[in-house]
Amino acid sequence: MKNPLLRTLYSAIPAKRWLFEPLRRSQILPKSVYQHLFVAGSMRIRVDANRYFSIQNNGHYIETLLYWGGIEKGWERESAAVWVALCKSSKHILDVGANTGIYSLMAYAVKPDALISAFEPVPGVFRQLQHNNKLNGGPIHLYPLALGPTDGEATIYDNADNHYEASLVADPHGKQRPQNQYKVAVRSIDSLLADGTLTGIDLMKIDVEKFEAQVLAGFKALAQYKPAILIEILDDTIGRDIQQMIGGLGYHFFNIDEERGLQPVAHLGKSHSYNFLLVQNKHQSILKNLLTG
To answer: How many distinct structural domains can be found in the chain?
Structure first.
């Protein structure tokens, strides 16, 4: 709902949650309709028939899709399905670029005994992440940090209009929008493992708006842990750099098509579906279920 006047009028409608709940439970509304029907407030999001997590919806598009469709029909539904399947067999889960915590909380919903660590450097978004964590009893270990090749600090470019586009790369999407710039603390994964902040990594998600290769550059211990990796790749250069870093480590590559599921690929690079799955042979049984499910 992009028209400001319509959005204001819609916001003034009282008791939307009360009106929408029967429609949400019946799942009769098509996405073309419900994607415009945002609802603000704390709400439970369905992961599957028996498992849920809670988040604060501030009227954003992604949270709105999750409210109406749950994980199965929400934002990045195939990526979410892959993530949930891998979380079930993981003890140490790392969420890099956690944003408001959707992937971390999915992990907690299906694997509550896992050690889940979430990293989010944008102060305002980190506060939302903290709030969502508290709504679920505070199970996630939260860090207001960016991850990169070395310890130190870096400039982050924060598009205040869209909290999903903050990046340590200036204007990562080429939109030339005004951006807030400020310094954030940066740690490397190797450093966090060395000082005991992280005690292992079985599974990780990396979504940092074109800074993914730099995150992996600070993870020399990747050869030791060889976790499954769900990663966003926005252009061919990033894909090539990542492929060079992990070459020889036995990883298999899959593009995650949000309509068709996992698609095996020989090379990492730009695709209409930005998320990729990098897995080892040890994930073969899980992968088989995903490919045939």
So the answer is: 2
- Residue 141: give its domain's CATH number: 3.40.50.150
Listed residues 21, 54, 75: the one ending a domain = 75
Query: What share of the chain has pLDDT > 90, as a percent?
Result: 59
Residues 10 and 111 in one domain: no
Q: What is the pLDDT of residues 43-90, one digit of tens each?
A: 888 888 889 999 998 777 888 888 888 888 777 889 999 999 999 999
Note down the domain range covering 35.
1-75
DSSP assignment string, the chain: ---HHHHHHHHT-TTHHHHHHHHHHHT-S-HHHHTT---EEEEEEESSSS-EEEEEEES-HHHHHHHHHHHHHSTTHHHHHHHHHHHTT-SEEEEES-TTSHHHHHHHHH-TTSEEEEE---HHHHHHHHHHHHHTTS-SEEE--EE-SSSEEEEEEE-TT-TT--BSSSSTTS-----EEEEEEEE-HHHHHHTTS----SEEEE--SS-HHHHHHT-TTHHHH--EEEEE--SHHHHHHHHHHHTTS--EEEEEETTTEEEEESS----SS-EEEEE-GGGHHHHHHHHH-
Question: What is the pLDDT, as a whole number, of residue 99?
Answer: 93
